[in-house]
Amino acid sequence: MNKPDDAEVLVKIRGLSFSHGSRVILDNVDMDMQRGHVTTIMGPSGTGKTTLLRLIGGQLRPKAGRVEVDGKNVPDLNHDELYELRKRMGMMFQTGALFTDLSVFENVAFPLREHTRLPEALIRDLVLIKLEAVGLRGARTLMPAELSGGMARRVALARAVALDPMMIMYDEPFTGQDPITVGVIMQLIRRLNDLLGLSSIIVSHDVAEVSAISDRLYMISNGQVVAKGAPNELRESSSEWAQQFLNGRPDGPVRFHYPAEPFEKDLMSAA
Amino acid sequence: MIDWLQKLGRGGLSFFERLGRGNLFLFHSLMGIPAVLVKPGLMIAQLYSVGVLSVQIIAISGVTVGMVLGLQMFNTLTDFGAEESLGPVVALALVRELGPVLSALLFSGRAGSALTAEIGLMKATEQLSGMEMMAVDPIKRVVAPRFLAGLLSMPLLAAIFSAIGILGSYFVGVGLLGVDSGAFWSQMQAKVDLYEDIYNGMIKSVVFGFVATWIAVFEGYDSVPTTEGVSRATTRTVVHTAFAVLGLDFVLTALMFGDD
User: Fold this and answer.
1) Tally of structural domains, chain B
2) Suppose B153 and one of A8, A253, B51, B69 were both cysteines; which one would form an S-S bond, judging by CB atoms 3.0 to 4.6 Å apart?
3) Threshold 0.90, pTM exceeds
4) Complex ipTM, two decimals?
5) Could A97 and B132 be called an inter-chain contact, meaning their C-beta atoms sit closer than 8 Å?
């Protein structure tokens, strides 16, 4: 597998470790996310996938290691530099994280109003363009409470691209959605990535969906990268991790049973 | 014994850690105030929900407290033939103590708990995280306007409480029990000092407003982002504010009126 050169890499992670109290979440992780690519991080629930996004966005500080975004090491940035960098990053949260007191239109306009001094007419046009891209121009007057889960995520996506960022991070974009919504979101992620020249990072455990739209996959388990490569490479790989995860086998390197003493011993101990 | 000491140590450490976080949070909130002054729209919306919407409970409580106070004081003062002093007695009790203290307690129950729940739920639904990722500082955008609104509302609410309380006691004392109206007002005018009583009462309400709002916004911001976490934070806001206000009231009263 060819290693991408530095100019092509937008997010470069080296030796990244993070722990929550005494629990190790990420342990010496290396990753490269290329410009223009859709890179997906997969793994069982609770393996630190969302934590990784928060480390890239500078919301958490690593215990060790480097997280370089566009050549800048995120943990080294001060408050102002970090906020400058975040203006060029979009993030779509699992819940959408829309502001419940603002309408759909105002949610998408929010970053524009906060960071630009554009005239109201231009803001209106920009918001309508973003809403049209996600198919919700007609829903602009609705409040977040009136939206379905899938619509809320699409509004969140429109808001994430409002400032034309260089990259977008998606936290579990397909979880809990019906098949039509999943299809719509899949198509939007790939289309926006290619049309707007973005780079996308998806955190997900929906194998079929992300395999179809990703250029590169990373699998993490127990805080470490256990497999990586293009979707078709991983499907054909001999990695037990990859095979268990991609085929949804109940037992394998990821154990079905939570660690415990032998069953017989446990049963007999009551006697 | 060792267990007990460990528990004490852990409790102490977490208390001081939280106190430190609270102070840092306060510092950041105060730093955010200039940004609010540039964009006052956010604060005005909060002044409405924190201040204006609290007027009803403050007014109703004020008039009730004033009426009860008028009745009780009248009965006691009549024993000494001093019912003409009803005006100043009630006014001093309200302006110096009951106005600032009771309105702070009511403020915490009505507006403080709402602030905590709102900020806590914004945290639980990742709205604060979302804001951070959009390069908007939630302390400046969400906390600072609420903090300033609470700070400005409290003295005004305390003043409304005292004024309406005095009217309530006038209604009972003069209207129902027959105290002379002229004596009620003129004695009040003679005995209540602008600096000694009214200003000191206002200082109290500013201090209580500061503490009550600080506790409310901090508890929301620092809450565990779950249903249970937000519910606990809301309870803590009301309980901690009550302790802080009552404790501070004693300290402030001793400082202001201790050498009378």
Assistant:
1) 1
2) B51
3) no
4) 0.81
5) no
